Amino acid sequence: MKPSPLPMLNGIKPSYLNLPHDKQYIGKPLLCYLRARFPFIAENIWRARLNSGMVVNQRGEPLHENVLYQAGEKIFYYREISRDAEPRIPFDEKILWLDNDLIVVDKPHFLPVTPSGRFLHETLLTRLRLHPDLQYLNTADITPLHRLDKDTAGVMLFSHNPATRAAYHTLFPSHAIQKTYHALAPTRLDLAYPLIVRTRLVPSEPFFLMREAAGEANAETRVRLLEPRGEASLYELQPVTGKKHQLRVQMMGLGMPLLNDALYPVVQPENGDDYSKPLKLLAKRLAFIDPLTGAARAFESGQDL
């Protein structure tokens, strides 16, 4: 892929959009397509962005509000957040390891990994790209190797070496990473631990939720009771697969929804994050055989529940 004609700005890479071959927009201003493609962004905002010189084509030529739609072109622009201000999330990440290929980070609760929706600058990726200890790297190459929900804390792997990224990325879909989570959930002493949970997870409604359904299992987790603590206990969860919200949904299915979960079993009203009630889910440990050296490697979060 050719490099972007726009540079990284304050830790944010430009987004891009391929203009499809759609006859209804031929001969019309590009603005018409952008209004239809992003109906949640007001027309006056797109006009201002187009006239700012910060929206360009693949040749780096600035576009304006009256430029015509060109099917097949690629345009580049900087994302903006969907709110007037973006307050700082008052928790800090910690770099656990740095070598020629990987950055291993202990992520706090509430911090998204990548920009989306209400979050642009206050993301783990943007913070790493601006981190003073990492400025000797090509920070534009810093990329997460896997997902971790905004509400979940713990260990994350990032690549900063494009030459070796694929080797490490492949560890996740091939289930070659042993992932260990800690969770706080209601106590159940009537189950025989360790417990192997195999269920089928499918998208639900609203669109951001998942649910268990009948059919062949596509999600597997090992559940172990670590420490009874009265009404709630500490559990060790080891997912074999990596489905969206897998641990949250499977624990709910066992009658043990995670403490302080704003999505399961009932979606809570969106009133902003309550920093006093973090989701009690922690990516405690990642272990794997290094695909480059063959050495056993393990990284552990310094946080506890």
Spell the H/E element sequence.
Answer: EHHEEEEHEEHEEEEEHEE
End-to-end C-alpha gap:
43 Å
The class by helix and strand makeup works out as alpha+beta
Annotated CATH topology of the largest domain: Pseudouridine synthase
Low-confidence stretches are none
What is the number of helices? 5
Shape: globular
Relative helix content: 10-25%
The overall pLDDT average reads 93
Strand content: 25-35%
CATH class category label of the largest domain? Alpha Beta
CATH superfamily of the largest domain: Pseudouridine synthase
- What profile does the largest beta sheet have? 11 strands, mixed
The count of β-strands is: 14
Keywords: Isomerase
Protein name: RNA pseudouridine synthase
EC number: 5.4.99.-
GO molecular function: catalytic activity, acting on RNA; pseudouridine synthase activity; RNA binding
What does this structure look like?
With 305 residues, this protein is of the alpha+beta class. It has two domains: 15-80, Roll (Structural Genomics Hypothetical 15.5 Kd Protein In mrcA-pckA Intergenic Region, Chain A); 94-300, Pseudouridine synthase (2-Layer Sandwich). Helix content is 12%, strand content 28%. It has helices at residues 30-37, 43-50, 124-130, 165-169, 246-253, and strands at residues 15-18, 56-57, 74-77, 94-98, 102-107, 143-144, 153-159, 178-186, 195-203, 210-213, 219-229, 232-239, 281-289, 296-300. The strands form two sheets. Strands 4, 5, 6, 7, 8, 9, 10, 11, 12, 13 and 14 form an eleven-stranded mixed sheet that branches. A hairpin with a 3-residue loop joins strand 4 (94-98) and strand 5. This is RNA pseudouridine synthase. It comes from Kingella oralis ATCC 51147. Residues 101-251 form the Pseudouridine synthase RsuA/RluA-like domain. Keywords: Isomerase.
